[in-house]
Specification:
Rossmann fold; 10 helices; binds nicotinamide-adenine-dinucleotide; UDP-galactose 4-epimerase, domain 1; about 15% strand; two-stranded parallel ribbon
Length: about 350
């Protein structure tokens, strides 16, 4: 075994598909699997935006379409399904029909295509957005345990679709069609993630705003900033995905940290990392999502003997460093005040 407990580092000969390989987590997943010696195919509706892919084979395909899912899953043993129409809270609350329709097409077709093409394992990326809204209406919320998902009352659109796709995975697994593994991600952030354009998440949006404002300046913060979340660094996310794929646990598992922080405090932490004094202008007209959301990692620790390791300050240092370097190359194209 290697020192991280994941077995030999080189698993050469294994063939994997990363669907959504042109996106943030998928791009990092391809790099992770390549380091482990895999042959990797990446598929996405677009090429990666910020860095060339390291996949052996990269196909641009629309995975809403059945025949494209069959082509994508041909001749691979492991399928990592990370393709989704998604974005930050503004995007997913403003586009319920598109998000729900696109994602149910992708997930139903991908699962069945992987089964028909004889894949041996299938990973599905669910979300903390499946948890009931009635459990998330205070900022000082305790962690959400996996069984808290029911009775269901998930986020409209995106959350309902994720919850149903979890169920589809469960049925394929139970009926012996295809072993499936499911993780519920809690706010993944890191370098090479979207930081502008409307689909970016809070850590990236805050990093962009702070990078573009002068020391002592003001930035807009969505909501009163007292809403809370926990955040997970992308390196921990891809390692967690791999560990879950190789566990014998087929029910959904939280993949996140259980360190809760308010959004105003997150702004202060990014400002500290950036070495700037920042004033906050809280905008109550902007969407802020649930009041509080945190991961309970009890089961993750029981199943894997592992949980995400990277501190928020270390992760934000890497993320802010990458976003500010990107912006230094194109300062006029992005507005600081969005
Ligand atoms: N980033 C997070 O905090 C987070 C949290 C919870 C769940 N997730 C889930 O993790 C997965 C990866 O998320 P991400 O953060 O990398 O997002 P992302 O938007 O960067 O990646 C998703 C990729 O899917 C691709 N895609 C969308 N429609 C497609 C289509 N029709 N055909 C082919 N590809 C298509 C997009 O082009 C994109 O590259 C998604 O399933 C997402 O719902 C992410």
């Amino acid at each position: 075994m290697s020192e991280n407990g994941l077995g030999e580092d080189k698993e050469s000969g294994k063939r994997a598909l990363v669907a959504g390989g042109g996106g943030f987590i998928g791009h990092h997943m391809i790099k992770y699997l390549k380091k482990r010696g895999y042959w990797v195919r990446g598929v996405d509706i677009k090429e990666p935006q910020y860095e060339a892919t390291s996949a052996d084979d990269f196909k641009v395909l629309d995975l809403r379409r059945w025949e494209n899912c069959l082509e994508a899953t041909e001749d691979v043993a492991e399928v990592y399904q990370l393709a989704a129409d998604m974005g930050g809270i503004g995007y997913i609350t403003g586009n319920h029909a598109d998000v729900a329709r696109n994602n149910i097409l992708i997930n139903a077709h991908m699962l069945d295509a992987a089964h028909l093409n004889g894949a041996s394992r299938y990973f599905y990326s669910s979300s903390a957005c499946i948890y009931p809204l009635y459990r998330q209406n205070t900022p000082d919320i305790g962690g959400l345990r996996e069984e808290d998902a029911y009775p269901a009352d998930p986020e409209e659109g995106y959350g309902w679709e994720k919850l149903y796709a979890e169920k589809l995975c469960q049925y394929y697994d139970e009926e012996g069609k295809l072993p499936t593994r499911v993780a519920r991600f809690h706010n993944i952030y890191g370098p090479l993630g979207t930081y502008d354009g409307g689909r970016e998440k809070a850590p990236a949006a805050i990093s962009r705003k702070i990078a573009l404002v002068d020391d002592g300046g003001e930035i807009e913060v969505w909501g009163d900033g007292l809403q809370t979340r926990s955040f997970t660094y992308v390196d921990d996310c891809v390692e967690g995905i791999y560990r879950i794929m190789y566990s014998d646990h087929s029910s959904p598992l939280n993949l996140g940290t259980d360190v809760l922080i308010g959004i105003n405090d997150l702004v202060d932490l990014v400002a500290k990392v950036a070495g700037k004094q920042i004033q906050k202008r809280n905008d109550l007209s902007k969407p802020q999502g649930v009041r509080g959301r945190n991961s309970d990692n009890t089961r993750l620790r029981e199943v894997l003997g592992w949980e995400p390791q990277t501190s928020l300050e270390d992760g934000l240092t890497a993320t802010y460093g990458w976003i500010s370097a990107q912006l230094a190359n194109k300062p006029s194209e992005v507005a600081a005040s969005k």
